[in-house]
Each structure stands twice: as C-alpha cells, then as structure tokens.
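=== RUN LOG ===
request id: a7f3
mode: sequence -> structure
chains: 1
length: 199
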Amino acid sequence: VSTQSTGGRSSEDMEHPHPHSEAARRMPVVEQVDLERYPHSLVWTPIPCITCCCPCVGHMGICDSNGVIYDFAGPYRIGKNQLAFGDATRVLQLDPSRVTDLDGAETHMEAYDNGLVHANSVYAKRMHRLCCDNCHSHVAMALEKMGYRSCLPWNMATLACWMCWCARYVSCERFVKSVFPSLIGCLAVACLIIFLLIL
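=== RESULT ===
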C-alpha cells in the first residue's frame, strides 16, 4: 500500500481512521438510524405499560463514539447494540468537547469512551433495582466519570428531565410509537372517571 502522499498513512487509514485519532475527531458525526447507531448520544425508548401511565418514564442507554448503544438491561447485564425494550425513539446528542476529565486520555472522545467502559464494568456486576439503581444510574455514572458538563450533578432526576425536554424523536413513526400508548392510557383514565361520575 502506498503511503507517499499521505504522510506515512495508508489510504485505508485515511478512509477508516481510528475512532480516537485526530482525523476521526474532525469527522462529522453520522447517525445510522437503520443500524441503530447514534455516536456519543443518549437514547431512550418507552417501557410497555409504565410509559403509557407516566410519559416521562422510559428506558435509557448511552452510545459510544462509534454509535454503539449500551444500556443497563437487567441484573448483572449490560446490553449492546439495542435497547432492552426495542429501538430508540428519542435521541439526545452529546458534545465530546464538554468532557472535562480526560484522566490520561489523548482526546475528549477517548475520555468519553473510557467513562462509558468504566460504567459498563461497574454495572455488569450490579443488581438492577427499578427505582434506585437502574438504567439512568448507569448513564449517570458514565457522565460523572468523564466529567461531562461538570457543573451538573448527574442522577436519575436530572437525566429524566433533560431527556424529556431536550431530546428529539428519531422519526415520525417512532414518535407515534412513543406517544400513542400514553394517549390511549390518558383516554382510558378519562373514560373511567366520566363513567364513575355518571354512576
């Protein structure tokens, strides 16, 4: 392979740079919805029966710099490539330049991935507790480890509010998937209340 015109780098290296290299850091982020790839983003999907009762409650994961999804999917289990309850319906893209704790990493993206690896290794050994140590806690630990926007305390409450108000829907189809069950639930409750009032 010729390297004369590329400063010692092969053409293959130029086309597919290492994800933590300077060349990769300058490349634009490219989402691949059909492959469920959302580079350095938080992702969210509704939980059957629960989200329809409380629309802000759902299942959350975090993606590495290559867009691979990781989530705390259950006791002692870190899911990879897809969220435990299906495809992502909402995405909130993060900015690697806001990672403040490099901890020996050469780039912000590398520090970002290191924070995610740390959270994965910790939560792969933890019991899942629905209300106090769950998928949001896993994401919060990753953000805390990398020092993402260090002025903010990361926990279940801040992540739930942030995702609820700032995340965008992946597509119209997934918007309907996310919102329709909640509308049905609200309609059912309204009908029940009216029925009780009539009686």
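=== NOTES ===
The longest strand covers residues 41-46.
The two ends are 83 Å apart (CA to CA).
=== END ===
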